[in-house]
Structures are given as structure tokens and as C-alpha cells.
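dumping this here so i dont lose it
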């Protein structure tokens, strides 16, 4: 019976120091050797996810930037979604304001219009450097391919921004917390769940034979797509409540699932 295991990266597989525990690496390798298809589902772009795959030493499917791209183990793009220029310009104008640090994300880089000290601090969390593009607004209006907007700031202000986004754009965008101090704003209907369903269909693996693990609100759509969803025990309470199981580590979650526990 084919099985698929999907893991979030930040806060789940990788800690804040960008480390992966050896036990998690070995559990994923064991699963791969037993025939389980492994996927990494992240808000990060493919170049960053590729670095994580190299640490694992296992060929993985990649759900990139919360479902904007689905990439195969050989690096082939299997599915792709981008903002249209008009909506991207509107979202950029709406979110590019104090007190936020807005990062504009493409499939090949993460950009800021001005690499300020605050932006440089935000950039330290990425696995590839932020790029400064002084004409970013004009380039977006001209059709620069955009996958998502990542907005960083204080939590109360971000919560208010989420409500403002829903009022202003409705279902034209999908927005949720992806970091403790950051939200991702995607085109409507683009999320980890729709990408997970597309991958299941491609592999011929049903929902009942798919498990996933995550720790944040951008993982909830993926939870809904999989029969077995695991929240990290440190995840916010609403995320834990939405999952069917909880675990302290990826290794614990993966081994329990394969053991039928």
C-alpha cells in the first residue's frame, strides 16, 4: 500500500537555529527505505527546501511557498500558481506600510524595496539572502512573477491586518499566520492543502494513506486534506485542536503512524 508523509519545515522539522535533529533525519530515511513517499510542505521557496532535502539525504516532493509550486524529487515543477499583476499590485500597496516589514516572494528569490536594518533582521530567518529591488512596485505592476507576500510585525497589528485583508480582498487572497510574527498572503485557493491534494492525485495515494505534521496556521489546510494530521505539541492551541494527533517530534509522529498507533 502506497503511503505519503508530508512535513512542515520551520518549527516542525527544523528548529529556530536551522537545525534538524538526527532522530528526525533517520526516521525519514527509514520511511523512505520502506517505500513511503516523503514531501516537505513549507512557506519557503524551492531553493531553500532543496537545502533541507540535502540535509535529509532523501528525494522529496516539495510543496513550496504554501502551495504556490509543487516540485518533484528531480526538480521538475509539477504545478505552479502566481498572482496576476493587478492583484499583486493591490496587495503590495495594501501591505507596504508601517509598522510592517513586507517581503515580496517569487519562485527564485525574496525581495524588499529597501533593505533597512529591520528588513535585514527579518532576512536572517531565510536560507537565502533577501534581495533589494528599488523599483519593486513598478516591476510588480509590469508582471514580475509573485508567489506570495510575507508580512512581519507585532502580533496585534498583524491580526488586525488579517481582518483588513479579508474585508478588502475576500476570497481573492488566502492569508494566515506562518510565523509567530509573520503572515503569508497568497492568491485565493492557493494553500498547502490544495497542493497536497494535487500531489496525492498525481501519486495515486488516497487521503486515508496520507499523514502530515505541522505547527502553524498555514498548516491547517494541509491538516484538512490528510486523514491523519499531527500538530507539534508546542503549536498554538487552535492548531493542536484542528489536528487528529499531537507529537513532540517528526520522528515520533512518523513512527507512530507507520506502526498503526
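and the seq i came up w/
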Amino acid at each position: 500500500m502506497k503511503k505519503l508523509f508530508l512535513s512542515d519545515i520551520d518549527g516542525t522539522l527544523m528548529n529556530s537555529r536551522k537545525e534538524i535533529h538526527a532522530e528526525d533525519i533517520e526516521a525519514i530515511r527509514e520511511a523512505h527505505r520502506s517505500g513511503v513517499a516523503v514531501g516537505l510542505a513549507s512557506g519557503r521557496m524551492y531553493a531553500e527546501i532543496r537545502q533541507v532535502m540535502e540535509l535529509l539525504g532523501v528525494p522529496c516532493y516539495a510543496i513550496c511557498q504554501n502551495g504556490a509550486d509543487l516540485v518533484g524529487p528531480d526538480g521538475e515543477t509539477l504545478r505552479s500558481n502566481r498572482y496576476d499583476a493587478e492583484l499583486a499590485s493591490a496587495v503590495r500597496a495594501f501591505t507596504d506600510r508601517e509598522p510592517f516589514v513586507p517581503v515580496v516572494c517569487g519562485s527564485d528569490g525574496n525581495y524588499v524595496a529597501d533593505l533597512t536594518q529591520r528588513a535585514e533582521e527579518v532576512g536572517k530567518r531565510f536560507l537565502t539572502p533577501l534581495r533589494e529591488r528599488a523599483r519593486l512596485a513598478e516591476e510588480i505592476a509590469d508582471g514580475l512573477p509573485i508567489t506570495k507576500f510575507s508580512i512581519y510585525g507585532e502580533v496585534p497589528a498583524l491580526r488586525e491586518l488579517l481582518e483588513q485583508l479579508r474585508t478588502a480582498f475576500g476570497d481573492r487572497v488566502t492569508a494566515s499566520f506562518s510565523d509567530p510574527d509573520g503572515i503569508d498572503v497568497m492568491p485565493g485557493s492557493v494553500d498547502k492543502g490544495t497542493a497536497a491534494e494535487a500531489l496525492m492525485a498525481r501519486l495515486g495515494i488516497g487521503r486515508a494513506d496520507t499523514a502530515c505534521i505541522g505547527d502553524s496556521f498555514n498548516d491547517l489546510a494541509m491538516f484538512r486534506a490528510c486523514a491523519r494530521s499531527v500538530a507539534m505539541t508546542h503549536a498554538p492551541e487552535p492548531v493542536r485542536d484542528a489536528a487528529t494527533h499531537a507529537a513532540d517530534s517528526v520522528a515520533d509522529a512518523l513512527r507512530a503512524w507507520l506502526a498503526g498507533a
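Residues 231 and 241 are 8 Å apart (CA to CA).
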